[in-house]
């Protein structure tokens, strides 16, 4: 903590708000806001995981929603087959996401730039079609999760407040982990690769291996978000991994500020609240959201965090 | 035998349609270095325009021609109002901005035409089956798509390789500063190329419209296929896009048609009918993965520095 800045103040305010939200929901009797923010926290977790490879690693994955689906389907399929324990469901969800990330990453990282964007997109779309073809698990219609993951008395996921705090704890844990990763030797190598891959390779770092490990870590984290999301909606369907969802995640990261620790969280909060707000004004909210995105890209360098930083300086 | 020939032609037809879409995408990327996700929206707009104009004029051909002009104009307007400002920016910016455009187009279509799909009925003379081989008939309309798409592919090739405009386009692709310094109006050239790409996407959309329903989001799934094609073919290469498109169209169509039966011979009936839909939709992605492993730059990388 070197100095007090506007961005730090706003971040702290936002985090305090997230922690105190259930209290407000209890006092005001507004249950909806808790449900909404549970979703926001889960997607913030997904956005934070995407930020690890996109913001710090320079790997523009346009297929991150695939992990949301894989994590979700791991929970849903196991529940369907009668395995209700969260101690099995969550590790399986994480492992499945990690394995998918390992395979996809190994293939996609053979390319770079715009090829990488398209390939991650195409593989996620493949996952989408595969899920649509799973007739046993609902196919296109999706799969209802009749019972949330059971953590045998440790924590009750059906309790709104407990579930919210579980999601928030996961978010904080992931951000802490990202912070440790980014500042470790490994993280510095990955960031070096973003700046100049050739030089890093010339110094003797095996570029692809570092990037692949980073890719897998990010995918695993997002798989966690997927498992939580399935528990939140009691439902998982191929639509979770549709490519527009990957786009949403990218937008959250950019909007909040790519390559900043808390930017994606801020981006998720603003994006989803904006979506909620606009959809209450008009049914055609995307008519406003679309051009807004265009404007943010054209004029909003560095996202919200960047703007806050400028406000603090100027 | 009948089925094989028919599916083969279906594959060719689908592949050629994909080529029209991929050609515009790869042209715009190769020359302006712009990743345009909204390309699928132009495909959708082509179909909506065609359905509307055909209903107005009562003529399929007239409606199709007007729709072609309308997508060309739409593309030019889009380029001049929004996309022009994205040249030279990061690819990620392109992806996000055009993602926003997709949201906009989908919602605008919902607002104007409503959430239900439209139908574009064919005139009677296009619905008759045409004998192509003794004893084998094929729908005239699908045959027409093949002919039109092949013609457009040929024109595109001649246009890019043999005309002055085509020469400028190729020159612009390899060095945009230099061609600007030589006194060529590069801005106008870019607008033209984008309009051409939009018209190609619109053509693909309006030709596909009578086969499928015209609906919101129709451009998105096929856009991903177009991406797969230019990844396989090599970004910026029209020849690569052509071959990859035919290849992908064939594999996708034949896979969907014959894979279930093939699987049934190996697996039990129930297992086969579960695995077949998932596997056949995976086929082209598997193909892409194999191409990537063997040639990460695509099969026919354009010579770019």
From TrEMBL, chain B:
Keywords, comma-separated and alphabetical: Amino-acid transport, Cell membrane, Membrane, Transmembrane, Transmembrane helix, Transport
Record membrane topology: Multi-pass membrane protein
GO MF annotations in UniProt: transmembrane transporter activity
Annotated GO biological process: amino acid transport
Cellular compartment(s): Cell membrane
GO CC terms of this entry: plasma membrane
Top-rank taxon, per record: Bacteria
TM annotation in the entry: 12-35, 64-83, 140-160, 188-211, 269-294
One Pfam family recorded for the sequence: BPD_transp_2
Protein family membership: Belongs to the binding-protein-dependent transport system permease family. LivHM subfamily.
Name the UniProt record assigns to this protein: Amino acid/amide ABC transporter membrane protein 1, HAAT family
Organism listed in the record: Bradyrhizobium shewense
């Amino acid at each position: 903590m070197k100095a007090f800045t506007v961005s730090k103040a706003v971040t702290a305010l936002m985090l305090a708000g997230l922690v105190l939200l259930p209290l407000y929901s209890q006092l005001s009797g507004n249950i909806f806001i808790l449900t909404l923010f549970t979703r926001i926290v889960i997607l913030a977790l997904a956005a934070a995981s995407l930020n690890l490879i996109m913001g710090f690693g320079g790997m523009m994955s346009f297929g991150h929603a695939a992990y949301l689906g894989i994590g979700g389907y791991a929970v849903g399929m196991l529940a369907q087959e009668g395995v209700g324990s969260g101690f099995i469901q969550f590790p399986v969800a994480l492992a499945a996401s990690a394995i998918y990330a390992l395979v996809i990453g190994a293939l996609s990282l053979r390319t770079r730039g715009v090829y990488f964007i398209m390939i991650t997109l195409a593989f996620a779309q493949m996952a989408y079609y595969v899920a649509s073809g799973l007739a046993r698990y609902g196919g296109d219609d999706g799969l209802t999760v009749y019972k949330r993951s059971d953590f045998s008395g440790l924590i009750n996921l059906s309790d709104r407040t407990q579930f919210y705090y579980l999601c928030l704890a996961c978010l904080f844990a992931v951000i802490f982990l990202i912070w440790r990763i980014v500042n470790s030797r490994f993280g510095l190598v990955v960031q070096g690769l973003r700046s100049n891959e050739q030089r890093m390779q010339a110094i003797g770092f095996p570029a692809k291996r570092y990037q692949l490990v980073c890719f897998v870590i990010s995918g695993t984290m997002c798989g966690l978000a997927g498992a939580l999301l399935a528990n939140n909606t009691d439902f998982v369907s191929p639509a979770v991994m549709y490519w527009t969802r990957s786009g949403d995640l990218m937008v959250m990261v950019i909007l909040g500020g790519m390559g900043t620790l808390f930017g994606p969280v801020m981006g998720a909060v603003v994006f989803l609240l904006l979506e909620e707000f606009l959809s209450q004004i008009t049914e055609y909210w995307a008519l406003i959201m679309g051009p807004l995105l265009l404007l943010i890209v054209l004029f909003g360098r560095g996202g919200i965090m960047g703007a806050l930083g400028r406000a603090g300086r100027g | 035998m009948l089925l094989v020939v028919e599916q083969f032609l279906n594959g060719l037809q689908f592949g050629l349609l994909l080529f029209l879409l991929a050609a515009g995408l790869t042209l715009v990327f190769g020359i302006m270095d712009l990743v345009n996700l909204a390309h699928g929206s132009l495909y959708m707009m082509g179909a909506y325009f065609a359905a509307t104009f055909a209903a107005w004029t009562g003529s399929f051909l007239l409606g199709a021609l007007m729709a072609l002009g309308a997508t060309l104009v739409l593309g030019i307007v889009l380029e001049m109002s929004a996309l022009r400002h994205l040249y030279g920016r990061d690819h990620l910016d392109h992806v996000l901005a055009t993602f926003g455009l997709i949201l906009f187009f989908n919602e605008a279509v919902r607002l104007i035409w409503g959430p239900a799909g439209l139908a574009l009925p064919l005139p009677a003379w296009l619905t008759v089956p045409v004998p192509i081989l003794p004893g084998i008939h094929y729908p005239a309309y699908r045959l027409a798509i093949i002919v039109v798409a092949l013609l457009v592919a040929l024109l595109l090739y001649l246009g890019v390789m043999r005309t002055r405009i085509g020469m400028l386009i190729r020159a612009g692709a390899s060095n945009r500063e230099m061609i600007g310094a030589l006194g060529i109006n590069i801005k106008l050239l870019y607008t033209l190329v984008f309009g051409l790409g939009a018209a190609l996407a619109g053509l693909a959309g309006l030709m596909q419209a009578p086969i499928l329903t015209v609906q919101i989001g129709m451009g998105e799934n096929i856009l991903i296929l177009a991406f797969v094609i230019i990844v396989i073919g090599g970004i910026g290469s029209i020849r690569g896009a052509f071959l990859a498109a035919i290849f992908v169209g064939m594999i996708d169509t034949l896979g969907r048609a014959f894979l279930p039966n093939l699987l049934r011979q190996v697996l039990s009936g129930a297992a086969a009918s579960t695995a077949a839909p998932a596997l056949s939709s995976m086929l082209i992605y598997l193909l892409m993965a194999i191409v990537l492993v063997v040639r990460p730059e695509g099969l026919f990388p354009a010579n770019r520095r």
